[in-house]
Structure to design on (975 residues):
């Protein structure tokens, strides 16, 4: 039985590119958590897209055995966290599984926006915070200045900071010592009934769903019958263990430990992040706090560019869903674009990532419809409909009442950005605001806003006006009355249903105009002029025209020019193939999503 | 079946014009070496080609060659290949080169067509283009051409030069027309990659006409020249009579075979294109070891040929022979593309008549895009 005193559960939080992944690598290497052969730089970010964008999407964990200077061997559990508001729930469950964090700060760049935003999150979870100044090897490093910032901007005790260069591998041992000395060991009673927090799950094609969890109380071992307290289902445990570089089977997992459980859970959708695992025959009293049913809030339809590829897309979606429990989808069809799927996402970043993964790993070219939230419509005959797909929007005349989902947004930022952020929220039809000051210079702003205003580009603009220092989180509250209308987009008189949007009437003209303008930017000129119109019912509310192509760059065409010209035209021809023909107009894939991007991009 | 054409590239210039991307050097020490190499290269093709009814000497600046040098080249051609008596033998001439005696000797050698690189009659434009000659040289050259007895000759002109508006362009056109050349070429200034002009352009040193202005220049040129008795027979080429069209250039546009001799020259035969090294050194070295100085080649697929037929056919007034197209590519255009054809006719871009699909003046302006619609 492992002694909890020798366990430390922690995470590394930092502003982007401050060296989180490199430090993680060093900690792994230093504790011998791998051998040179197996090591792959930044092993925790093992998805291509994560590496490329420098973001973490899934939570991952690894146990590092460390023999400290006091001669004793400790088990340090490093839990990696995703870092975007779309996944803020996952972040919160990962942090809830830790007792402390390393707050990493780049010595040359100093305290940056995300440093602060992440600090706020860690404070909300009452975690022990160890500031670590990284990249001290850089010629532009200014450690003194960073220490000053830790005091003045972060309000932390400067005596407690550490210095390191993850790249060069210096200061690593001091960090490990600090983790041992300063991050409290977990508390919990092994003799109590089992209570384990699920912070992630992954699908292994050979073993099924692997549940990542932190044991709070009790003990779990192979053979136990476990129950998911929110999910309700029961399973028999096949195996438990720790995460080293790969999974390592153990006899049991006990209170304070981080590890995995394999229990014949067929699909990842059966596991809910934040759920509590307990024993069927000796359950704990109540589930751990903080559980939220994660529901998709943004919906969009996806279609293959070539209708022949529909089957391939279906297979690709099935495979993708194996490792993304929050992604949902069902069949859908469009007059303009053919057979496709209606999908639900946690937010626009999630949508972006899904699209990118599908296109990259499964070699699919995709068209997305304009993303939408789910509205509630009450018809005159008292039927209540939940509609997110514009093609399911009932005739305006039959609608008695339209409602849209509202959120409560809580935003934390340094005081100086309050004005700009409040202006943004008001622009987004925010209401019922409240303000408080959780700490000197720190402001917390609460606003109620329509979700549809938030999903489009609120987060990016929020980050922009707060210069990245703001942190943003939200929860759905209720449906409120809204004067809703359906905007249709017509290209040369033909309705393109994938471009339709359900919007608040006050926004209609602006939305319609923006859609037309964006399309004008994205659709290349063609042999004939193209009329773009936005309409509500039969009424045109906005229009613009793309003029026809009138002059080539028709260079000389003699002996040496022919081959070159042909190749150029071939390339253009290929580009045209990747477009969708609506009537006699070729529309590129990018046009569909571009419709939503606002001017400030 | 048309007879093949022969192109010979002279890769030397006295000065380099900043807009030009043809291969040439200003180091003239290798001129004689290249001439003898050209002669050698011809020998390598006596099996593949025997008759050429057009010979075209281009460059670079062919007119910096002396008469004896040009004689060496032409007699080598006649020795190895057959050129019928009515063959078209063309040479490109820089207006700054040659006196009347030189022009007369050209005629004696057998040249029966000249292309004069006039480009413009405006000193400012000539300066921008980095030309070696002045407007007065152009008049002198024209004079020599006529006096030497050339009946078939053309002037090259460039428009779309920064600072040039429609009015000043009209002046150049009027001037050109007044000299009554049987042939005129009018090119819009093109920014070619890796030329000094391109670098200046990228640095923002000057602006080029936008689409509307380009179109205005193009339409104005076409209308004016046709009013003045010229037939707009290809996007950039105008002829007073069918006899003054460039027979050699037509071969490029209808997939007639042609052989390109000299560094950087291109050839085409039996669905295959090949091209020589754009380097005097590599060119000479290969020939020294009896190797064809070929840098690369490509074999055209049926789709390649089809696309070429479209974009080359639609840039000439004659257009495309619909029946031949169907025979060659299995594509019955009027039947399978009737919708697109109807809208293009309605849009004023093409006409169909006498079994041919031809571009209108507006169609010529968008010839490349037209080709892509099929």
């Amino acid at each position: 039985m492992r002694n909890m005193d020798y366990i430390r559960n922690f995470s590394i939080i930092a502003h982007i590119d401050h060296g989180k992944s490199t430090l993680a690598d060093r900690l792994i290497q230093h504790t011998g958590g791998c051998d040179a052969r197996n090591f792959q730089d930044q092993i925790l970010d093992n998805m291509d897209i994560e590496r490329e964008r420098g973001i973490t999407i899934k939570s991952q964990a690894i146990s590092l055995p460390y023999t400290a200077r006091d001669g004793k061997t400790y088990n340090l559990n490093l839990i990696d966290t995703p870092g975007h508001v779309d996944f803020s729930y996952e972040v919160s469950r990962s942090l809830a599984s830790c007792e402390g964090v390393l707050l990493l700060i780049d010595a040359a760049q100093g305290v940056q926006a995300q440093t602060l935003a992440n600090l706020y999150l860690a404070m909300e979870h009452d975690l022990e915070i160890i500031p670590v100044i990284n990249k001290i090897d850089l010629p532009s490093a200014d450690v003194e200045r960073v220490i000053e910032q830790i005091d003045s901007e972060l309000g932390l005790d400067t005596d407690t900071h550490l210095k390191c260069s993850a790249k060069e591998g210096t200061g690593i041992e001091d960090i490990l010592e600090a983790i041992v000395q300063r991050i409290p060991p977990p508390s919990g009673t092994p003799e109590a009934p089992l209570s384990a927090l699920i912070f992630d799950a992954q699908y292994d094609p050979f073993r099924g769903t692997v549940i990542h969890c932190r044991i709070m109380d009790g003990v779990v071992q192979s053979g136990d019958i476990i129950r998911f307290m929110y999910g309700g289902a029961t399973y028999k445990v096949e195996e438990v263990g720790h995460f080293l570089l790969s999974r390592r089977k153990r006899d049991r997992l006990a209170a304070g430990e981080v590890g995995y459980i394999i229990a014949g859970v067929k699909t990842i959708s059966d596991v809910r992040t934040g759920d509590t695992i307990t024993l069927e025959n000796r359950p704990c009293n109540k589930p751990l706090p903080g559980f939220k049913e994660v529901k998709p809030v943004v919906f969009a339809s996806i279609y293959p560019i070539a209708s022949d590829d529909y089957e391939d897309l279906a297979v690709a979606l099935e495979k993708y869903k194996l490792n993304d429990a929050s992604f949902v989808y069902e069949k859908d069809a469009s007059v303009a674009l053919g057979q496709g799927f209606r999908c639900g996402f946690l937010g626009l970043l999630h949508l972006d990532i899904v699209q990118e993964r599908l296109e990259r790993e499964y070699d699919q070219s995709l068209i997305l419809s304009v993303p939408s939230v789910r509205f509630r419509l009450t018809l005159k005959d008292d039927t209540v409909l939940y509609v997110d797909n514009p093609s399911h929007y009932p005739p305006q005349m039959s609608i008695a009442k339209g409602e849209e989902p509202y959120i409560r947004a809580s935003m934390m930022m340094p005081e100086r950005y309050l004005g700009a952020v409040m202006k943004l929220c008001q622009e987004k039809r925010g209401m019922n605001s409240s303000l408080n000051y959780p700490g000197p210079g720190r402001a917390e702003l609460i606003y109620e806003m329509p979700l549809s205003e938030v999903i489009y580009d609120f987060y990016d603009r929020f980050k922009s006006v707060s210069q990245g220092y703001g942190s943003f989180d939200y929860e759905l509250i209720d449906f409120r009355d809204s004067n809703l209308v359906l905007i249709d987009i017509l290209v040369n008189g033909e309705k393109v249903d994938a471009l339709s949007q359900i919007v608040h009437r006050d926004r209609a003209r602006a939305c319609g105009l923006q859609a037309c303008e964006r399309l004008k930017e994205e659709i290349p000129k063609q042999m004939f002029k193209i009329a773009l119109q936005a309409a509500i019912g039969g009424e045109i509310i906005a229009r613009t025209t793309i003029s026809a192509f009138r002059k080539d760059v028709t260079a000389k065409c003699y002996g040496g020019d022919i081959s070159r010209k042909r190749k150029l035209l071939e390339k253009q021809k290929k580009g045209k193939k990747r477009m969708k023909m609506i009537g006699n107009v070729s529309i590129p894939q990018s046009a569909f999503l571009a419709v939503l991007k606002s001017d400030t991009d | 079946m048309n007879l093949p054409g022969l192109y010979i590239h002279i890769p030397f210039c006295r000065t380099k014009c900043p807009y030009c991307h043809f291969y040439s050097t200003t180091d003239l020490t290798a001129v004689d070496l290249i001439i003898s190499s050209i002669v050698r290269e011809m020998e390598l093709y006596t099996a593949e080609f025997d008759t050429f009814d057009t010979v075209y000497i281009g460059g670079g600046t062919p007119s910096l060659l002396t008469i004896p040098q040009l004689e060496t080249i032409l007699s080598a051609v006649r020795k190895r290949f057959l050129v019928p008596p009515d063959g078209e033998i063309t040479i490109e001439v820089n207006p700054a080169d040659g006196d009347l005696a030189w022009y007369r000797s050209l005629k004696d050698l057998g040249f029966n067509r000249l292309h004069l690189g006039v480009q413009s009659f405006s000193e400012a434009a000539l300066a921008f283009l980095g030309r070696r000659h002045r407007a007065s040289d152009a008049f002198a050259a024209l004079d020599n051409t006529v006096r030497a007895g050339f009946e078939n000759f053309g002037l090259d002109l460039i428009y779309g030069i920064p600072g040039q508006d429609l009015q000043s362009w009209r002046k150049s056109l009027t001037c050109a027309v007044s000299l009554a050349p049987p042939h005129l070429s009018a090119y819009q200034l093109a920014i070619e990659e890796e030329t000094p002009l391109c670098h200046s352009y990228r640095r923002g040193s000057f602006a080029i006409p936008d689409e509307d202005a380009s179109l205005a220049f193009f339409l104005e040129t076409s209308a004016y020249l046709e009013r003045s008795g010229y037939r707009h027979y290809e996007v950039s080429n105008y002829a007073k009579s069918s006899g003054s069209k460039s027979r050699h250039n037509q071969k490029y546009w209808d997939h007639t075979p042609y052989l390109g001799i000299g560094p950087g020259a291109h050839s085409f035969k039996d669905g295959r294109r090949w091209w020589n090294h754009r380097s005097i050194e590599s060119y000479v070295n290969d020939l020294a070891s009896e190797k064809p100085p070929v840098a690369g080649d490509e074999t055209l697929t049926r789709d390649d040929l089809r696309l070429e037929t479209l974009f080359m056919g639609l840039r000439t007034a004659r257009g495309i022979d619909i029946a031949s197209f169907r025979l060659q590519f299995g594509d019955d255009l009027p039947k399978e593309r009737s919708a697109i054809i109807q809208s293009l006719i309605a849009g004023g871009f093409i006409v169909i008549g006498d079994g041919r699909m031809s571009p209108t003046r507006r169609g010529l302006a968008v010839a490349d895009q037209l080709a892509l619609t099929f």
Observations:
- Chain A touches chain B at residues 527-528, 549-560, 562-563, 565-566, 569-570, 572-573, 576, 584 (CB under 8 Å).
